[in-house]
Design brief:
The chain is an alpha+beta fold and 360 residues long. The chain is 26% helix and 31% strand. The strands form 2 sheets. Strands 1-7-8-9-2-3-15-14-13 form a 9-stranded antiparallel sheet. Strand 11 and strand 12 form a beta hairpin. Helix 6 packs antiparallel against helix 7 and helix 9 crosses helix 10. The protein is globular.
Length: 360
Amino acid sequence: MNAEEIRTRFSELRAKGMRHKDAAAAMALSEGAAIAAHAGTHDKPLRATPLKGPWVELLQALELCGPVLALTRNETTVHEKTGVYEKVSGSEAMGLALGEAIDLRLFFSRWHAGFAVSEAAANAGVPPSLSLQFFNANGLAVHKIFVREATDRDAFQSVIDTYTTPDAPVQFVPADPKAAPRDDSAIDASGLSEAWRGMQDTHEFFGLLNKFGVERQQSFRLTEGEFTQRAETSAVRELLQEATFDGTPIMVFVGSPGCIQIHSGPIVRVEPMEIRGMLWLNVLDPDFNLHLREDRIASVWIVEKPTSDGVVTSVEAFDGEGELMAMFFGARKPGVPERAEWRQIVRKLSRVATPGEEAL
């Protein structure tokens, strides 16, 4: 399809209530390619203006806009936080946002293209939605930023004007097939366990995976019983509900190919919903929303990592393709031990019986 055909079909699908991502998929396009087709002059409801970097400077400029909504998602999970982009720092390759509400780990080397996106509302009198949307080279959304009622729209538009680049075609390429994990027998499992035992900080874990050439869930299998346990797929709902009951502050991590977004604090309202045959597990709090496809959870692991502050425990959910959906921790600061209340929540989670336990 040419750009005009894409715009016409996209508008039709949006009118039926489809999300951007789903409308693009229905046309066998990446979301990035569908948005890019809306650049330039045309009469369709959605308009896209290409943006230029440096991305870290663009995000720093957003502080003057006041509260906005930050959105990071993967195939099965959406993480939304409302707040101000504060304490943004970084380079062309990586960055951080360490504001009170907006807490991000940014991998700018994977940000291929950005657009300011305006979309007319279906109802007359309602202002158009306005957002900044960033994509990787495969057209997958890595991060989005939406105007909210409290946002200074003039300041937001000023950011767009500053970082607008002349319309130029943006090319996206298909993703390479996901590499299969190495066979378990090829992994130095004893070395992995020894290195795991010697960790002083949870941030060392990614380097440990690289050092031993081991996939994340594979590392859990190889250390099962020492550092990891399998939980039932119901464990995510259980932990969210337990956290609401007693007010235990938690951390919720959701990642895209170019960003990890973090919520830290208590949660109040957990709402499971079935929509068109899909089972969503939602947190619907004023400044934090989580939308997780509970029916797509294939495995859940309880993971313990040694640190200089004591053991830190995470609960990690994966989909059927082995992709990490979300990670959950007890809220904590460096130098502070893990909360006893969080450990109590984890202790209550339903476990998957090991073969030996099933025989008892």
